[in-house]
Amino acid sequence: MEFRLFPNSFAKLMLNHLGASIVPEWKLKRSINNKPILGTLVGVPVLNPPGFSRRQRAFLDGRDLNRIFPGKPAGTSSQTYCHMILEKFAKKFDYHLDLHTAGLGRVNSLYVRADMNNPITHQMAVLQQSQIILHNTAPDGSLRIASMALGIPSITVEIGNPLQIHQEFVECALSGVRATLDWLNMLPIYPSEKIEETSSRAKTTTCTRSYWVYAEHGGMLQVMPKINTWVSKGDVVAVVRDVFGNILVKYKAKEDSIVIGKSVNPICCAGERVVHLGVCDDEFGKKK
To answer: Which DSSP symbol is given to 64?
Structure first.
């Protein structure tokens, strides 16, 4: 494995996104067109063609591929497909950027998930200049975690909302990809190409952990705080009402936290995700 620590090193970087995540990678291609690249840059515009064509995250068998990795050589269609992706694509690269958006019915901030105790992925995360960085090493069945288990530094970049192109977030994310290429000595960024900071990435909040608030009752859901805003312990972050407008339950923040993502679907069932809150402790945990 070759790292940026050595001048003029050659590296292989893989970009991909899944299903309902729409990230216009052609913009990156156009921005680096006719410029020499040291190493190999591979973009996989659609890693889940069946989900993409049906405008959803699920694969042919209804499973979310990013919960199945590393997959199995002999298993369900989603398991064998994930195994193929890992064997024929991911294993051949030195670094990996996994580009995503929120799931259907939810919205996200521009945020990065990475192991911040790992010096390589720590730097990769910082280079994205996102609104939020979330330290996360949980074995969640994602391509990122499967890549990390193989010793391939990998981060996930969440770029806004599903089934739409969030223009400002996209520009920030592509700038982060170019900064990563520059850091790897793959594609030097010239002064004239530097992109000024936008309001979306004026300041990055680094969270040591996060948690989802889940609905205990079904009904009509309203999540109050905006994305990338702070809430204090005890603040009401969401309410569920019946169809007549009567409040059934209020959900409060357990501690001071920042809103990473939230549900925008007004129809809520018990057990569904309501709001994703990030917490800033003194140091990164070793597990999550």
So the answer is: B
Q: Classify residue 106 as left (phi > 0), alpha (psi -120 to 50) or beta.
A: beta
Count, in order, helices (H) and strands (E) of the chain. 6, 16
- Give residues with Cβ within 8 angstroms of 82, minimum separation 6: 65, 68, 69, 70, 71, 143, 146
Reduce the DSSP state of residue 80 to 3 states and report it: helix
190 exposure class (CB count in 10 Å sphere: 0-12, 13-18, 19+) = exposed
Element (H, E) at 133: strand 132-135
Query: Inter-axis angle of helices 167-183 and 119-127, to 10 degrees?
Result: 140
- Report which residue type is found at 48: N
Does residue 5 have a pLDDT over 60? no
pLDDT digits (tens, 9 = 90+) for 254-272: 999 999 999 999 999 999 9
Compute φ and ψ for 194, nearest 5 degrees: -60, 135
SS3 115: coil
Taken in order of first residue, the domains within the chain and their CATH numbers are: 11-205 (3.40.630.10), 209-279 (2.40.50.100)
Residue of 97, 93, 89, 86 whose CA lies nearest to 121? 97
pTM assigned to the model: 0.86
Q: Within 10 Å of residue 6's Cβ, how many Cβ atoms?
A: 10
85 Rama sector, left if φ>0, alpha if ψ -120 to 50, beta otherwise? alpha
